[in-house]
Amino acid sequence: MKIGKFDSEFDQESLDIQKCLDIWKDVNCMKLLIGGDINFGVSDFVEKDRAKCRVMKYNYHNDVLMFHNSVVPIFKERKSIVHVVHNEIGHFSE
Question: Which of 34, 41, 62, 82 has the fewest CB atoms within 10 Å, counting from its CB?
Answer without folding.
Answer: 62
